[in-house]
Structure formats: structure tokens, C-alpha cells
Amino acid sequence: MGRIDKGVKCSVVGCSRDAERSISIDKARSAGLKIGSAEKRAYLCKEHYKEFKKKSKKDKTLEKWRYGA
């Protein structure tokens, strides 16, 4: 049973919804999300995860091209 199943809240400043996903805190900050806690993982609710995916799409595409996949 992980932290999300236990009911951890979203790590974005000003959000109090339940988390759906966890990602690296470095990836979350590079996407422009304001993360409040200083943990290793950033926990995101459904809306903030969707925002993260939109903002990091270009980076993922560049990484894919870089490694020739």
C-alpha cells in the first residue's frame, strides 16, 4: 500500500485535492509547477498531472529524438 492509497494530498502550493500520481520532484519543477514540500517525490492530483503532461510534452519529444527511438 503506497502513499497515494493512504490519501496523500497534492503537493502543488494551494491545492488540497487527493493525489492521483507521483513523479520526480525535479521533473515537476522543470515543468513549472510550484511544489511546496522538499520530498523526493511530488504528488499530483488529476488536474495538475494533466497540466504536467502538457508542459513536459516538448521535453519528452526531444529526449525521444535524442536517443533515436
Poorly predicted regions: none
- Sheet with the most strands? 2 strands, antiparallel
- Secondary structural class: alpha+beta
* Total beta strand runs: 2
How are the SSEs ordered, and which strands pair?
Elements: H1 3-6, E1 21-24, H2 25-30, E2 41-44, H3 46-55, H4 57-66
Antiparallel strand pairs: 1-2
Description:
Helix content is 43%, strand content 12%. It has 69 residues and is α+β, with helices and mostly antiparallel strands. It has one domain (3-66). The longest helix is centred in the last third of the chain and has 10 residues, at 46-55. It starts with a helix and ends with a helix. The relative contact order is 0.21.
Keywords:
69 residues; alpha+beta; two-stranded antiparallel ribbon; 2 strands; 43% helix; 12% strand; elongated
Structure described in brief:
The chain is of the alpha+beta class and 69 residues long.
